[in-house]
């Protein structure tokens, strides 16, 4: 799974406005011809990113090139079961990437549009948010 090699802080505060507003960066195609764009805001886990990437790669039979343009930097903590209230914050459990509407999640190149559209659709099924297919020809 994806996880940062090194972090400044092991645990982060939850935050109130991580997933409000629209994406100001990462909202245009940078590498590929086709992309998968987020329409909703939510946190995507490293397991979900990996599942989506695998389904796309499997569908295009390793034909084109795929870029994953998001990375899970934010650690989420979880307390052990049946631990009483208080007694501090739990241990880091997994890493997530906060995604805002308009953010490009995946990019693809080297395949025809019908194949790319179907591969991105399969990837979107694996994610907890609504996504839409975009291409550099459509904009």
Brief sketch in words of this structure:
With 139 residues, this protein is an alpha+beta fold.
Describe, in plain words, how this protein is organized in 3D:
This protein has 139 residues and is an alpha+beta fold. It has a domain of 92 residues: Alpha-Beta Complex (Aldehyde Oxidoreductase, domain 3), CATH 3.90.1170.10. It has two helices and seven strands; from the N terminus they run ββαββββαβ. The strands form two sheets. The protein has a four-stranded antiparallel β-sheet with strand order 3-6-1-7, covered by helices on one side. The longest helix has 14 residues. The radius of gyration is 17 Å and the shape is elongated. The model has no long low-confidence stretch (mean pLDDT 92).
Could you give the topology of this structure?
Layout: E1 34-38, E2 42-45, H1 46-59, E3 65-68, E4 74-78, E5 91-99, E6 104-109, H2 113-125, E7 131-135
Antiparallel strand pairs: 1-6, 1-7, 2-5, 3-6, 4-5
Helix pairs in contact: 1-2
Strand elements, count: 7
Overall average residue pLDDT: 92
Largest sheet: 4 strands, antiparallel
Q: Unreliable segments (pLDDT under 50, ≥5 consecutive)?
A: none
Share of helix among residues?
A: 10-25%
Shape: elongated
Number of helical runs? 2
Could you list some keywords that capture this structure?
single chain, 139 residues, alpha+beta, four-stranded antiparallel beta sheet, 7 strands
